[in-house]
Write a structure and sequence with these properties.
By secondary structure, the chain is α+β, with helices and mostly antiparallel strands. It folds into 2 domains: 44 residues, no CATH class; 207 residues, no CATH class. The protein has 4 helices and 11 strands, in the order ββββααββββαβββα. Strand 9 and strand 10 form a beta hairpin. The protein is flat. It binds zinc ion.
Length: 257
């Protein structure tokens, strides 16, 4: 049986809410209020946006400029690429501000004589968690263009944009951030120490921000192969790029390819 979603109206303006399967926080397309579906009421999480600046009218020239830029790309890329698809998405992101403190004990054994080590690793983070469960978006590497951050308003979206609601509420995002920050501390300590006999982490979660950022998901073709490209919808910078190998035509024969 297909999933039937209840018809819901915005508790703030009464407008119909566009709810997709899996959504947890739904942003009203009329007034911009956030509704927590688990609670069914207006949600007072601070909501910001990095407004998209590259719309349908300018993306093609931004892509063309990207193809011709940089010495790592094939010289004929800007001439020979073919655009297969492009979609502007508005992605939900949580930014969890926390201080993470790990007390540890362990040993360095790589030098022969085991040398005990103990101490405290304490760092402050603005940890990013994507509010979507399946996305090719590289959240960890993504540099949020924070200088362009504004209060969320529905009028700041551009026509044709695919607006994605968050599939998790704040508490789940914080849990994911805690797990990832703890794993990051373990990673940092395991680089220095060969054994860890004690590893205790405490979190001071200060603030969580809810933010929508924009990205163009692009697929293009070059020499018969498909490549993916993600460009920041506000700045046009690379977020993630598959780049064809340079000089393949030149050395392909020599390498037996
Ligand atoms: Zn509304």
């Amino acid at each position: 049986m297909p999933e039937i979603l209840q018809k819901l109206n915005c508790p703030d303006c009464g407008g119909p809410l566009k709810v997709q399967a899996g959504d947890a926080i739904v942003t009203c397309g009329y007034c911009g209020s956030d509704v927590n579906l688990a609670v069914g009421s207006k949600y007072f999480l601070k909501h910001s946006i990095i407004p998209p600046r590259i719309g349908q009218d300018s993306i093609d020239s931004v892509i063309k400029a990207w193809m011709g830029r940089g010495f790592l790309k094939p010289d004929d890329l800007a001439r020979k690429y073919k655009l297969v698809s492009r979609e502007l998405q508005m992605l939900p992101l949580f930014i969890v501000n926390a201080t993470v403190r790990t007390e540890y004990e362990g040993e360095i054994t790589r030098t022969g004589q085991p040398a005990p080590r103990s101490g405290v690793l304490e760092k402050e983070y603005y940890w990013k968690v994507l509010g979507r469960r399946a996305s090719a978006f590289p959240t960890r590497e993504y540099q949020v263009p924070l200088a362009a951050k504004e209060d969320f308003e529905i009028s700041k979206l551009v026509p044709g944009i695919k607006f994605l609601n968050s599939e998790m509420a704040e508490d789940e995002a914080i849990n994911i951030a805690r797990q990832e920050m703890e794993a990051h501390h373990r990673f940092l300590l395991e680089k220095e120490l060969d054994t860890l006999s004690r590893f205790e982490t405490k979190f001071d979660i200060r603030n969580t921000e809810f933010l929508h950022v924009s990205a163009w998901f692009i697929t293009y073709q070059y020499n018969g192969k498909l490549y993916n490209l993600i460009l920041d919808g506000a700045t046009g910078d690379d977020v993630k790029a598959d780049i064809p190998q340079k000089g393949k035509g030149l050395f392909g024969g020599l390498l037996g390819g």
